[in-house]
């Protein structure tokens, strides 16, 4: 076979068509940060061919500031998700070769989407999570006049790199927006304290602004003991077990949901200092950013309980959602 044929047609030694092979190699190399050797293992082609494909991708303009070509299978999944769940938009990234890289890859795609969809005069209500943190980190810096960012939940009392407060500040700084926070902890110690915290004038001012948001950007958490809520000590292991026994599949804005997207009747949810999940239904454009097969049940719950306009996820979660 001549070298000209190595990057044209399907006879390339891989299970993917040539255009898809280039796009996947580019994602793994430029977004996921895999070595060429690791990519050759993932795609089932030689290292020399990986190098040639990446060179061709650069020469053909597939790799610019963003990866322009869509992976064919991902485009098909996007269309199916839109039809199945009534979405305006769906963005599906290739599945990462290493599952721990899913938040980074989905965050990269979310940054591109948000850069195209946040405009002057917008009021953006923001959740939190690893994937959203990656998205904000990747978001290009630009000044959007008269924009506002409002955090949808309280913050951490101990400094952490992934603090809801820090996420809101960073997004506001990236787009030159005003920023409003919920100046309370993410969880109160008791439900009566939650009621007291949420009744404060400064908190009610932020909630008032969040209710007038035209965009909400949210993510979901799982019941895994490795989830941020469990890792940061908000929830005891025994409480996670109780929530799971009560039918919880994951959390949205620190409020645990059942499979139909309803907030579970449990003290943990009554302690959450956050924008009520039910009121997200009134936000015109809800953008859900989350992925990984382990998050599929949580994502499905939100799709059932909230009117989501755009879903940004990965192949593994998309396939699991469509199989549900």
TrEMBL record:
Residues of the Sugar-binding domain: 71-323
DNA-binding keyword on record: yes
Superkingdom as given in the UniProt entry: Bacteria
InterPro entries found in the cross-reference section: NagB/RpiA_transferase-like, SorC_transcr_regulators, Sugar-bd_dom_put, WH-like_DNA-bd_sf
One Pfam family hit: Sugar-bind
SUPFAM superfamilies: NagB/RpiA/CoA transferase-like
Molecular-function GO terms, alphabetical: DNA binding
Keyword field: DNA-binding, Transcription, Transcription regulation
Record has Iron as a keyword: no
PANTHER family, per database record: TRANSCRIPTIONAL REGULATOR LSRR, TRANSCRIPTIONAL REGULATOR-RELATED
Family statement: Belongs to the SorC transcriptional regulatory family.
The name this protein goes by in its record: DNA-binding transcriptional regulator LsrR (DeoR family)
